[in-house]
Every structure is written in C-alpha cells, then in structure tokens.
Design a protein that fits this description.
With 309 residues, the protein is mainly α. The protein has a single domain (73-304), classed as MetI-like (MetI-like fold). The chain has helices spanning 8-53, 71-78, 80-84, 87-110, 117-129, 132-143, 155-162, 176-202, 206-214, 219-230, 232-247, 251-256, 266-276, 280-304, and strands spanning 56-57, 66-67. The chain has a two-stranded antiparallel sheet with strand order 1-2. Helix 2 (71-78) crosses helix 14. The longest helix has 46 residues, at 8-53. The chain is globular, with a radius of gyration of 27 Å.
Length: 309
C-alpha cells in the first residue's frame, strides 16, 4: 500500500483562510481599541479610585488623606438618615411600573393600523429628546412660580384658581411633592419605553398576526398570546432599568426642589456629602453601597423574572 502524498496546492486555501481570519481579527481589535481605552480610562479607573477613596478619610482636594478602613461603611449603615431617603424610591418605583404599563398600552395602539400613527410616535418621543434640566425647569414653573418651593403661584395653580379652587403648595407639601416629581419623571422618560416596545412589537412576524386574524382572535387575545410573549425579553429589560432608575433617581428632584420637603434621594445625599460637606471618602462609600444594592436587586429581579427557555 502506497502512501498518498499531499500536494502543496491543497494547503494553499487553508493558509489563505488562516491569513484572512488573522486580518479580520486584527481589524476588529483595532476598531475596539479606542472604545476600550476610553471605557477603561473614564469608567473602570475612576470606579477603582472611588472604591479606594471609600476606605479613606479625605476631602475633595485630597488633602491630609487618612486610611480609615471600614469606618465609612460603618457610618453609612449606622446612620438612619441615609437610608431613610430610600423610602422616596417607593414613589418612583410605583411610578416606573405605571410608566411601563402605559408605555406598553400606547405602543400597542400605535402599532395598530391607525391614522397619523407616525405623527403620534414623534409626539410621545419628543419629551425624551428634551434636556432633563429644561424639563425640570419647565415643570418647576408649572407647579409653582419664583423659587418653585414655598409660594402658591404657577401655571397649575392659576388654572385651579380660575376654576374657583384654592391654590396648592405642590412642591412644599411632603408626600405630594414626590407625586409631582414622579409625574415629571414619567412625562420625561415614557417616550423611550414606547419606542423600545414599538420596535419589539414590529419585530414580530406579520404572518403570526395574519394567522391570528384568520382564527378570529380579538385584540386582547393578540396581545396576551402573541405580543406579550414575543416581546418578553424587552419587557424584562425595561423592568430592570425601571428598578435601577427608581433607586438612583437624581436630576429631577435635585433641580426642582433641591431635595427639600421630603424629596431627597440617596444619590442627592451622596452628592451633598461629597461637595457640600466635603467628605469624599464617606460619599464614595455611599456610592459603593448604592452600586451593590443595584447589583443585588438586579440579580434578584433576573432570578424572579427568569426567562423561560
């Protein structure tokens, strides 16, 4: 029996393929190099520094830095005022689920065959395009005039007075102020949820809708058995983002009320600790604690709402 010799020509395609693969990997790595460097420089390194600061006693200029170990964490967990602000997250958590339900409802309607649907899509998404500071200032004037806190002037109170009612201190009444801030938050961010749901609903094959229509399924049945299961990953993602946002809300309450009258949040307290009281080490520990809380809540939420395979 003679051994077959392998011709050199037969090895050429393999070598060529290997060279092409290497060139492709080099190209991919070059394209990823700059984003990766930016991510490391502006995200991971500052995060590592923040963890380091959380074990130190230091001001915002880093003068007379002193290593204190876990003292900052002990202060965070032994001070009830810090965690008392988390009760305001309940308002935003309830509001975020109302926002998701309303966004899903509107997205389902806008994906149906209605006139001027594209126009309405642009209208509901427009608030998300406005800067958060501008939105906060608009609604601050809407609820109350002047400093936006202690007086009873404002657009809404003008309408109430015109109708014969008594003006209300929307932003200086504890409890009511958080409801007003949640309303602003829903108005600001619901457009993003609607667009996400619209994209997910439109990704479902039209053949499935046609089959359901031939079987005589009504709109509720189409939503229950086709739309909801089809966009379940997007719903879970939006729920995770909603919980994360409710825990770490900052811009709207800070700009409108400055955290006064029971509207403060844990993030507002963290920034005040760092820049107002100049306790950067303690503020860093608070930020690390908030990060760990978000991670734990996200993991629990993923386990509870685990996607069926």
């Amino acid at each position: 029996m003679t051994k077959k010799t392998i011709q050199p020509e037969r090895l050429a395609p393999k070598n060529k393929l290997s060279k092409s693969y290497i060139e492709k990997m080099v190209t991919v790595c070059l394209f990823l190099l700059i984003p990766t460097l930016l991510l490391v420089i502006f995200t991971y390194i500052p995060a590592a520094e923040m963890v380091k600061f959380s074990f130190e006693e230091r001001d915002q200029f880093g003068v007379n830095v002193k290593f204190v170990g876990l003292e900052n964490y002990k202060t965070v967990f032994s001070t009830p005022e810090y965690f008392a602000a988390f009760k305001n997250s309940i308002y935003y958590l309830i509001g975020s689920f109302i926002q998701l339900g309303l966004a899903l409802f509107l997205a389902t309607i806008l994906c149906s065959k209605i006139r001027f649907s594209n126009f309405f899509k642009g209208v509901v998404f427009f608030p998300y395009m406005i800067n958060t500071v501008a939105v906060a200032l608009i609604f601050r004037r809407f609820f109350q005039k002047g400093d936006g806190i202690t007086n009873t002037d404002g657009t809404l109170n003008s309408i109430i007075t015109l109708l014969g009612g008594d003006p209300v201190k929307f932003l200086s009444t504890e409890g009511l102020v958080n409801i007003c801030l949640v309303f602003v938050s829903i108005w600001r961010y619901i457009g993003f949820d609607i667009v996400m749901f619209i994209g997910a609903i439109q990704s479902i094959s039209p053949d499935i809708y046609e089959a359901a229509d031939l079987d005589g399924a009504n709109r509720f049945q189409v939503f229950r058995y086709i739309i909801a299961p089809g966009i379940r990953p997007i719903i879970l993602l939006q729920m995770i983002l909603a919980v994360k946002g409710a825990i770490s809300v900052y811009e709207i309450p800070f700009i409108i009320t400055g955290g006064r009258f029971g509207s403060s949040t844990f993030v507002i307290q963290t920034t005040e600790t760092a820049f107002k009281f100049q306790k950067v080490g303690l503020a860093s520990a608070m930020a690390v604690v908030l990060f760990l809380i978000i991670v734990v809540v996200t993991v629990i939420q993923k386990l509870v709402l685990k996607e069926e395979k």
